Structure formats: C-alpha cells, structure tokens
C-alpha cells in the first residue's frame, strides 16, 4: 500500500478524507490548516454526520495528539477521545 493511499471508511464506503475537502472548508479553516501543516499537523479524517456539519479531525506528526478544526479556524485540542 502506498503512503498516498487513504483508507476507505467501511461503514458507508466513503473515503475518510473527501477528495474535495478544500472546497468544503471555510477560508478560516484553510488558513489554519496551512499553518498547522507547517508544523507537522494533517487531516486524520472527516466525520460527516447525516444531518449535521462535518467535523475535521487533525493529527500531529507523532500521531499522538488529535484536534478538531472548527469552522472559525480555531482548534480544540485534548479531546480525551481514543481514535482507532
């Protein structure tokens, strides 16, 4: 498996990160993500609830810290969740 290949979300058959993710993000989210990528953060997955807004979950380069990227560009760290 190549490093570029993303896993498939098995529950609904969708990519964990949509191909058009940038078009689904606000300008503030895109700006924050660009800054965070510079220090090793990346999108881990995007949760897309059926009747709710998407939730973009980020992960640091070590894979140990996660954060949620809010619509206003802020992030919520220390979520206290376990990601499989």
Task: Walk me through the structure.
The chain is of the alpha+beta class and 84 residues long. It has one domain (8-77). Helices cover 18% and strands 26% of the residues. It contains 2 helices and 6 strands. The chain has a 4-stranded antiparallel β-sheet, with helices on one face. It has a two-stranded antiparallel sheet with strand order 1-2. A hairpin with a 4-residue loop joins strand 1 and strand 2. The model has no long low-confidence stretch (mean pLDDT 80).
Tags for this entry?
single chain; four-stranded antiparallel β-sheet; 84 residues; alpha+beta; two-stranded antiparallel ribbon
Layout of helices and strands:
Elements: E1 8-9, E2 14-15, H1 21-24, H2 27-37, E3 42-47, E4 55-59, E5 66-69, E6 75-77
């Amino acid at each position: 498996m190549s490093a570029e290949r993303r896993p498939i979300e098995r529950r609904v058959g969708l990519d964990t990160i949509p191909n058009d993710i940038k078009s689904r993000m606000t300008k503030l989210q895109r700006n924050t993500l660009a800054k965070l990528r510079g220090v090793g953060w990346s999108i881990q997955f995007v949760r897309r609830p059926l009747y709710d807004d998407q939730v973009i979950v980020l992960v640091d380069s070590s894979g140990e810290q996660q954060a949620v990227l809010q619509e206003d560009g802020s992030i919520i760290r220390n979520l206290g969740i376990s990601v499989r």
